[in-house]
Structures are given as C-alpha cells and as structure tokens.
Design brief:
Radius of gyration of chain B: 18 Å
Number of domains of chain A: 2
Order of helices and strands of chain B: HHHHEEHEHH
Largest interface: A-B, 18 and 17 residues
Number of strands of chain A: 0
InterPro entries (chain A): Spore_V_AC, SpoVA
Structural class of chain B: alpha+beta
Structural class of chain A: mainly alpha
Oligomer: heterodimer
CATH superfamily of chain B: Cation efflux protein, cytoplasmic domain
Largest sheet of chain B: 3 strands, mixed
Protein name (chain A): Stage V sporulation protein AC
Distance between the termini of chain B: 47 Å
Keywords (chain A): Membrane, Transmembrane, Transmembrane helix
Number of helices of chain B: 7
C-alpha cells in the first residue's frame, strides 16, 4: 500500500496491515514467470507446427495458414478443457496458458461446464461467453483503436 | 519430482534456440531438399531458356536482406520466390516493395511475380525441380506459374 494512503488509516488499521504483511504468502513471481514462459512457448511451438502442417499438406500460404491454425488450437484446448487436462496445465502455467488463443477456448468451455446444471438455454447458452465475452469485446475494440491509429498515421503521418 | 522434467524441457528449449537457422531448415518439416535451393537457384537442366531467371537470382543473392532465392521464368512471366532472414522480417513489406520495384526495372518486358511467402517458395522450388528432372513445355510451366500466382494473391 502506498505511504500516502497508509497515513489516512487508523492506528488499528495500520497495525492490521503490518500483521497481514508479515503472514501473507509470498508469490513466487520469478518461478511463475518461468513456468508461463515455458508453457506459453510450448503452446506457440505446437501452433507453429500446426501452421506448417497446413502449409505443407494443404494450399495455405504463410498469411492464410493463420486462420485454420487458430481454429485448431482453440478446438484442441476446448477438448482438453472438457477432459479436465487444460485445468491442470492452467494451474501449473498460469498466464502461460491463459494468454495464448487456447485460453479463449478454455474460458468458453469452462463457463459452459460450470453452468450446465442451470439448463442448456439459460445456463450454458447465456453463460458460455460470460468470460470470453470480454475477450471478444476488448479484442474488437483494441483492433478498432489500432486500425484508427494506423489509418491516421498513414493518412497524415505519411508512413 | 515434478521439477526434473521442467529442467529438461527448459534445457531442450534453450538448446534448440541456439541452433543455426540453416540447420533448422534442414530438420524442418519440408524434407531435405525442398527448402534448400540449388546453388544456382534456377532450373538450369530444363530445355526452356532460364537466362532472366539466372540474372534475377544472381541479383537477389547479392542482397544481404535475402537469405535464399528460387526463380523460374517462362514466356513473359518471371516467378521469384525468396526468403527473408528472420530478424529482417520486421522490414518485410519494405523489402518486398523494393525487390518488386527493382525486378520490374531490371526486366521491363516481363510480368514479375515475387513473393517472400514460405509456401510460394516451396511451390516454386517444386516447380524448379520438376523442370530440371522432367522436360516440361511452356504451357505446363505457365499453368504451374499461374497456379502459384493465384495462390500468392490469396487473402483468406
């Protein structure tokens, strides 16, 4: 907590804050980063292999192979989530499994599984994109902003 | 218990990251000869005149921002496929534009089709090998070039 804010706390609150700080479990940040890097890297390597597979065996170029690769990766993560394997990977890797596109498939299916007891329409149907919805919304919005910046830079910046 | 495989995986990844690009090419999915161009970069064994292709390949090989090149020509069409070194890919668009422009200047009578796409490189390499091994006529080569050109323009 910032020193400025701590000054506003009552003595009891300040005491509690110190008490909490002493007993709080320290997060192994370096280890978590290493794990995320490793698993994220493995996921990306698999994605690259799938991309090469589509390029080698089908008429996809480097540019067009991205679409089926993303679809395949999302599909695979959905299957793994259904089988309960992805959850274990996520527990180990943290952001390394959530940040790649496979995390999107995991978010959709885990929400669907969680709400299946509420029925298919009002349970699965309405809650499936509970978590993935924000990914779609902010992804689309970020793409719009980037496109806007690019357009402005090209039109007026002469890039 | 859990830690040992993590260490093994990390060591493997670091070790594979140190590999030279050329070695990676040899070990990659494309097979042994598909990725690596012949020393000339053109289909010399074919009956069709590959003079313009050889000149284009010579020029491109001298450039530092191009790693490997395959060129085939037939009639008034010149198909150029090349690879850009990994770290130079940041300037991919610029390099592509520059190569296209220079080749157009060098071969004014030709319709230049150039691409830095790996798939186009493989396809051109295949065509070049086919031209060297079998005696393909103009029509067949043109049809193949047309097919590769269509593929290079594919957006979706």
């Amino acid at each position: 907590m910032a020193n400025e804010k701590r000054k506003n706390l009552t003595p009891v609150q300040q005491e509690y804050h110190l008490f909490e700080k002493e007993r709080e479990t320290k997060r192994p940040i370096v280890r978590n980063c290493a794990r995320a890097f490793l698993v994220g890297g493995i996921i990306c390597t698999i994605g690259q292999a799938i991309s090469y597979f589509y390029m080698y065996f089908f008429d996809f170029t480097e540019q067009t192979a991205g679409n089926p690769t993303v679809a395949t990766m999302v599909f695979l993560s959905m299957i793994l989530t259904g089988l309960g394997v992805y959850d274990r990977i996520a527990q180990f890797a943290g952001a390394g499994s959530a940040v790649p596109v496979t995390g999107f498939g995991n978010a959709v299916i885990s929400a669907a599984i969680e709400h299946r007891t509420e029925g298919f329409v009002l349970g699965v149907g309405s809650n499936m994109f509970k978590l993935a919805g924000s990914v779609i919304l902010f992804g689309t919005f970020a793409a719009f902003v980037i496109a806007l910046i690019k357009t402005i830079a090209i039109q007026w910046g002469g890039l | 218990m859990k830690q040992w495989w993590l260490v093994v995986m990390a060591a493997l990844m670091v070790a594979s990251g140190c590999a030279k690009e050329e070695t990676e090419q040899k070990q990659s999915l494309q097979g042994t000869n598909l990725m690596r161009a012949q020393t000339s970069g053109t289909a010399k064994g074919t009956k069709l005149d590959q003079g313009p292709a050889e000149r284009a390949a010579d020029y491109l090989r001298r450039r530092e921002d191009i790693r490997d090149v395959v060129v085939v020509n037939s009639g008034d069409r010149l198909l150029v496929a090349y690879q850009i070194p990994h770290m130079q890919r940041w300037n991919r668009k610029k390099i592509e534009k520059d190569v296209e422009g220079r080749l157009r200047d060098m071969f004014p009578g030709y319709k230049v089709i150039s691409s830095s796409d790996l798939k186009i490189f493989w396809k051109t390499q295949q065509l070049k090998t086919k031209m060297s091994n079998k005696s393909l006529d103009h029509r067949e080569v043109n049809r193949e070039i047309g097919r590769i050109e269509k593929l290079s323009k594919e957006q979706t």
